[in-house]
């Protein structure tokens, strides 16, 4: 039998169906229905009040900023915002849920019918539908370890209780773990651009649950799905889905049946494990929240919010390619975060060659940020510094070798480019006499290449420039070297 690199995939007679539910914590200063702070990391139970503690008789008051952020996110995700939406109680018992219910939205969510476009595997784009975007409050946190007392008990911290969330539910349009990864990457990018959340997965500001089932190719009905919960990175979600698809295939092929259940992903083992059966999934017994009026977002308010919508990543990429003659790859890298795109555009208009700046940012700046585990905001070299380096390189004042060395020094000494340039100003040889002497030596030592050049193969000049640069340990001014060599070879 002929083998291929991924025999399991090509041979499968099943296709996966994946749906994602993403919870995003909104960056409001106060909670959804009370004035308690939402700041992360405060001592346990220091940010609570009768409302978020679920005391009898306490009444919720809706946070206006929460609505504005949720509407902004809805618009950015191409959703239709419903003029009237209804808050509902989602009833269940859990130790970190003192009220015994979460305020959420059910049959009348804030927004519906959105989509995100992701790159399709065969080129072009694929549209992944968003069923709904609704608003809800978070529960508290159960602390099982790491604190005094947790060796014998579980502690409850209610600081998070009542923190505002949006839940974004995708259509089951996702067909592969790679598409799930792309969808999540785009979703996070878009939300970050709107500024309504920091999407920090470590602090739980972005959480993802994935529903996955398989069905024989060609079959319309969905198979029984399993839900993989609380995976804390996109890479792990992809890995969990890959594992789960194979597990379900093997189960069905061996005559078994997939049961509807919640499964947890163990990233150390790369496996999912059954957590609880979900047969009683419909027992939340939602009903309209009697303490809150219907939420009305009229067109006037919606339009006001829409005015604050920034240019979104996809549109920005297209514009930047046109404005600065960038490649798609350049534009993609530079728009990965809004901060990066803003910083680049802040200097691109005044720099001599924005394309060169884009290259330097990718080859010199981003690579070093990654190696040092730094964010752009923590970079010793600012965007203005990068622009200066690009201009110097463009003018031929510094060679690419020097450029690299200067960036190395800037990162080692944690100073910006202008500072390091002033300090280490390359001992560049700009003495014409000295360079002419070296040029003569190089020409004399390579008669064959001289012959080629004079026979019309002008590209050989690069060989000579390179040889002079080598002889001067990269310290010659490349523009001058080029000029001198051309003169000599032509003459
Ligand atoms: Zn409170």
Describe this structure in words.
It is a single chain. The chain has 491 residues and is of the alpha+beta class. The chain is 39% helix and 19% strand. It has helices at 7-11, 64-76, 177-194, 234-253, 299-307, 313-324, 328-334, 338-348, 354-371, 383-394, 400-413, 417-423, 432-445, 447-454, 461-471, 478-490; strands spanning 14-25, 80-81, 84-85, 87-91, 101-105, 111-119, 125-137, 141-143, 155-157, 164-170, 206-216, 226-231, 261-266, 271-277, 287-288, 295-296. It has a 9-stranded mixed beta sheet. Strands 5-4-15 form a 3-stranded antiparallel beta sheet, with no helix packed on it. The structure holds zinc ion (ZN). Residues 31, 34, 36, 48-49, 51-52, 162 line the site of zinc ion.
Approximately how much helix is present in the residues?
25-40%
Question: What's the quaternary structure here?
Answer: single chain
Bound ligands, named by name, code or SMILES: zinc ion
What is the topology, as strand order, of the major beta sheet?
A: 2-6-7-10-1-11-12-13-14
Given the helix and strand composition, which structural class is it? alpha+beta
- Summarize the biggest pleated sheet: 9 strands, mixed
- Alpha carbon gyration radius: 30 Å
- Give the DSSP E fraction (strand runs of 2 or more residues): 15-25%
Residue ranges: pLDDT <50 for 5 or more in a row? 1-9
Number of helices: 16
Question: Given the C-alpha coordinates, what overall shape results?
Answer: elongated
Summed over residues and divided by their number, the pLDDT gives a mean of: 89
Total beta-strand segments: 16
Report, as a whole number of angstroms, the end-to-end distance: 67 Å
């Amino acid at each position: 039998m002929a083998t291929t690199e991924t025999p399991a995939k090509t041979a499968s007679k099943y296709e996966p169906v994946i749906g994602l539910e993403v919870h995003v914590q909104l960056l409001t200063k106060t909670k959804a229905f009370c004035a308690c702070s939402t700041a992360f990391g405060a001592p346990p139970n220091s940010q609570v009040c009768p409302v978020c503690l679920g005391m009898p008789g306490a009444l919720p008051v809706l946070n206006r900023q929460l609505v504005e952020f949720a509407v902004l996110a809805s618009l950015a995700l191409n959703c239709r915002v419903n003029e009237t939406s209804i808050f509902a109680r989602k009833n269940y018992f859990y130790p970190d849920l003192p009220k015994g219910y979460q305020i959420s939205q059910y049959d009348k969510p804030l927004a519906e019918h959105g989509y995100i476009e992701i790159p399709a595997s065969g080129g072009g784009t694929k549209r992944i539908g968003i069923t709904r975007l609704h608003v809800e409050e978070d529960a508290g946190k159960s602390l099982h370890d790491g604190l005094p007392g947790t060796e014998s008990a579980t502690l409850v911290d209610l600081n998070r209780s009542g923190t505002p969330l949006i839940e974004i539910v995708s259509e089951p349009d996702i067909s592969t773990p790679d598409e799930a990864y792309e969808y999540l990457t785009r979703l996070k990018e878009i939300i970050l651009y709107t500024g309504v959340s920091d999407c920090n997965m470590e602090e739980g500001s972005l959480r993802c649950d994935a529903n996955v089932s398989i069905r024989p190719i060609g079959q319309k009905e969905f198979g029984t799905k399993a839900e993989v919960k609380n995976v804390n990175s996109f890479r792990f979600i992809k890995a969990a889905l890959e594992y789960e698809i194979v597990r379900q295939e093997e189960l069905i092929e061996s005559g078994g049946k997939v049961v509807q259940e919640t499964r947890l992903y163990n990233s150390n083992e790369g496996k999912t494990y059954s957590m609880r059966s979900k047969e009683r999934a419909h027992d939340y017994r939602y009903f309209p929240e009697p303490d809150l009026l219907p939420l009305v977002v009229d067109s006037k308010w919606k339009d006001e919010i829409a005015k604050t919508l920034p240019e979104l990543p996809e549109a920005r990429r297209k514009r930047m390619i046109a404005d600065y003659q960038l490649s798609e790859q350049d534009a993609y890298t530079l728009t990965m975060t809004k901060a990066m795109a803003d910083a680049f555009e802040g200097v691109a208009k005044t720099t001599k060659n924005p394309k060169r700046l884009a290259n330097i940012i990718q080859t010199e700046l981003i690579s070093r940020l990654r190696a040092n585990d730094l964010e752009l905001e923590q970079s010793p070299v600012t965007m203005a510094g990068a622009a200066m380096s690009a201009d110097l390189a463009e003018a031929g004042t510094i060679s690419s070798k020097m450029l690299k060395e200067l960036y190395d020094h800037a990162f080692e000494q944690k100073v910006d480019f202008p500072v390091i340039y002033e300090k280490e100003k390359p001992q560049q040889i700009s003495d014409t006499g000295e360079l002419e002497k070296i040029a003569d030596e190089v020409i004399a030592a390579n008669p064959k290449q001289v012959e080629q050049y004079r026979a019309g193969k002008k590209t050989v000049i690069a060989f000579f420039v390179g040889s002079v640069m080598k002889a001067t340990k990269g310290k010659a001014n490349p523009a001058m070297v080029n000029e001198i060599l051309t003169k000599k070879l032509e003459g």
